[in-house]
Design brief:
This protein is mostly beta strands. The protein contains one helix and 14 strands. It has a four-stranded antiparallel beta sheet with strand order 3-4-5-6, with no helix packed on it. The chain has a four-stranded antiparallel beta sheet with strand order 7-8-9-10, with no helix packed on it. A four-stranded antiparallel beta sheet has the order 11-12-13-14. Strand 13 and strand 14 form a beta hairpin.
């Protein structure tokens, strides 16, 4: 069960289900205010997710934060990275995890063997909270969620351009493409290749 980010207190439960035996086992449980899971993905034999939180301040304004990236391995759940993560992708062959943060304009590479993170890219436009995809050769960044939030919450210009970046695995900018409004998601990028 993956719950949406709802600003109320509820329980978040994750179950492992064995297809052959049809048995299920609860492997994660937490009760909290505004808790949710984002980006539940499996790479190799491991499953990862971002634990998100919604909070409300004294002026009734909501904010979103992340408690980090979690890994499910052998029915055990552990926090891998404690940063304020928004998006991630994994190169499972090289044991590198690439991620963006809610509070930073960079892209980070985390090596799962050494457990060390290093910033490999800084967005010159200042976008944050990228959606990331890895195709086996390149890392693709999509800034639509950041620009949509800027338009809605900060009342910035409705003409902000959406941008997709193509990076090498070491963070070198290979290409940058500005998209028309009708092509504002990474899933539409194949029309530009």
């Amino acid at each position: 069960f993956i719950s949406p980010l709802i600003p109320s207190s509820f329980s978040l439960l994750i179950y492992a289900f064995n297809i052959q035996t049809k048995e299920s086992k609860r492997i994660y449980s937490e009760t909290s205010y505004g808790l949710g899971i984002k980006s539940l993905n499996t790479y190799g034999g491991n499953t990862y997710f971002i634990k998100m939180n919604v909070s409300k301040d004294d002026n009734d304004l909501y904010s979103i934060s992340s408690d980090g990236l979690y890994q499910i391995q052998d029915n055990d759940v552990k926090c891998v990275i404690t940063d304020n993560i928004y998006g991630y992708c994994i190169d499972s062959k090289m044991h590198n995890l690439y991620y963006s943060r809610l509070d930073d304009t960079g892209i980070y590479m985390y090596n799962t063997d050494s457990c060390e993170s290093v910033k490999i890219f800084e967005d010159p436009e200042g976008s944050q909270c990228f959606t990331l995809t890895y195709d086996g050769e390149y890392i693709w960044l999509d800034d639509t969620i950041y620009k949509d939030a800027a338009k809605y919450f900060n009342k910035q210009s409705q003409t902000l351009n959406y941008t997709i970046y193509q990076l090498s695995k070491d963070g070198e900018l290979i290409a940058r493409r500005v998209l028309d409004i009708e092509y504002k998601s990474l899933s539409s990028f194949d029309t530009f290749i």
